Amino acid sequence: MISKKIIKREIDRWDPEGFFPWAPEDEYSIEIDDIHNRLKSYKDYRLDEITVAKVISSVFVQWLNHDMFTHRRDFSECIGVSRKILKTWRRESVGKN
User: CA-to-CA distance for 17 and 10, rounded, in angstroms?
Assistant: First the structure.
């Protein structure tokens, strides 16, 4: 299971709404919690870049204004964030074994 810590780190780095450095550290906590909860419904072997990117995109479309999010952010950005999340998760998972 991808940890919330990994998701938070990459979502905060991405900062899809451009809130940082002015926003509080927990600015995206609702979206991060939602992403984490949705990803928990998948088996680890089913988590790939597209699946994770679709979850990220759908969460931000839901919590932010759909037109505003899709106007400012391309799905390819969600894939980029997804890649970083999965890379970190896999690296940390290997380190635990």
Answer: 14
Phi-psi domain of 5 (left: phi exceeds 0; alpha: psi -120 through 50; beta: other): alpha
| pLDDT of 97 higher than 60 | no
DSSP calls for the chain: ---HHHHHHHHHHH-TT--TTTS-TTTTHHHHHHHHHHHTTS-GGG--HHHHHHHHHHHHHHHS-HHHHHHH--HHHHHHHHHHHHHHHHHHHHHH-
Written as six digits, the tokens of 58 are: 């759908």
Q: Is the pLDDT of residue 76 over 80?
A: yes
pLDDT tens across 6-58, in order?
A: 999 999 999 988 888 899 999 999 999 999 999 999 888 789 999 999 999 99
- Determine the residue type at 73: R
